[in-house]
Amino acid sequence: MKKILLLSLTLLFTLFAGCNKSAKDDPDSANPNQHKVVVKEIIQVSSYTYAKVEEGSKEVWIAFKKSEIANGETLYFEGGMEMANFKSTELNRTFPSILFLDRVSKTPITAAAATTQADPHGTGMGGGEQPSPQKPVLEKEEVKIEKPAGGVAIGDLYTNSKSYESKLVKVKGKVTKYNAQILSKNWIHIQDGSGTKENFDLTITTDDEVKVGDIVTFQGKITLNKDFGSGYFYKLIMEDAKKAK
Q: Is the pLDDT of residue 93 over 80?
C-alpha cells in the first residue's frame, strides 16, 4: 500500500513539474489574453500601420502606430477596439471591420508587461514592455469664457447631460490639450471656467486643427457614456465637431 501511494505521489510530482516546465518553455502560453498573428498584408500611412493578419484560420485587419514590420512576421497583441465600417480618409477606403490596437509586440507579451502604464493616447511597438494607454490627467485652469450665442457652458452640459444627449450643441473654450490623428480624428480638450472640480473639461473629436491656448468655438453631437476601450471611457463627449463662428 505504501509503495502504491509513493508511486502515485511520484507520478503527480512528475506531471506537475512537466506542466510548469511547459509553461516556462513556451512563452506564448504565459499570457492567455494575448493574440499571436502572422502578417499577410501591410499598408503604411502617415501615422498608422494597417496590417491584415492571420490567427489560425481567421484573417483580420489591425491598425497601430506606424511601425516597421514585414510580411510573414509574427506579432503579438492584447485587447483592442473594433471599428465597424471604418473609413480611412488617407486611403479613401472603408474597412468592414478593423481592430485599433494600443500596441503590438514582436515578442510574447508577459503578464507583468501587460499591466504597466504609459502616456495618454500612446500606441507602441516593442518587445513586450510597451505599456497600456491611460486617459490624460487634467487640471482646471483659471479661465472665464462666456458661452457663445445659442451655445451652452461646459458646466451646464454636465449638469443637464441627459437633455443634451444626441443633440447638436455649440460650446466655446480654451484649448488645454490637443492630440492629432488618433483613430483618424483630432482630439481636443477645452475649458471655459465653468463646472465642478470633476466636470470642467470637454473632450471633442474633430477633423479641424487647433493649437493649445486657442480660444475656439465648436458645434457637435453630444454622446453620453462612450466607451472606446483600453481605459478610454467618457461620460460625456462631443463627437465629429466642426469649428463655428
A: yes
| HSE toward the beta carbon, residue 26, CA cutoff 13 A | 11
CATH architecture for residues 28-126: Beta Barrel (2.40)
Q: What is the pTM of this model?
A: 0.51
For cell 450665442, the residue is 149
Task: Give the whole-angstrom CA distance, residue 126 versus residue 155.
Answer: 41
What's the rounded Cα separation, in Å, for the pair 40 and 37?
9
For cell 518553455, name the residue.
25
Helix or strand or coil: residue 122?
Answer: coil
Q: Do the first three CATH levels of 28-126 and 154-243 match, i.e. the same topology? A: yes
Average pLDDT along the chain: 79
Asked whether 174 and 190 are in contact (CB, 8 A), the reply is yes
- The 8 Å CB, 24+ separation contacts for 125-128 are 125/64, 125/65, 125/67, 125/68, 125/69, 128/76
- The mean pLDDT value for 190-198 works out to 93
One of 2.40.170.20, 3.40.190.10, 2.40.50.140, 3.30.70.141 is the CATH number of 154-243, namely 2.40.50.140
pLDDT per residue over 43-57, tens digit each? 998 878 999 999 999
Name residue 169's beta-bridge partners. 220
Alpha-carbon distance of 104 to 237, in angstroms, equals 28
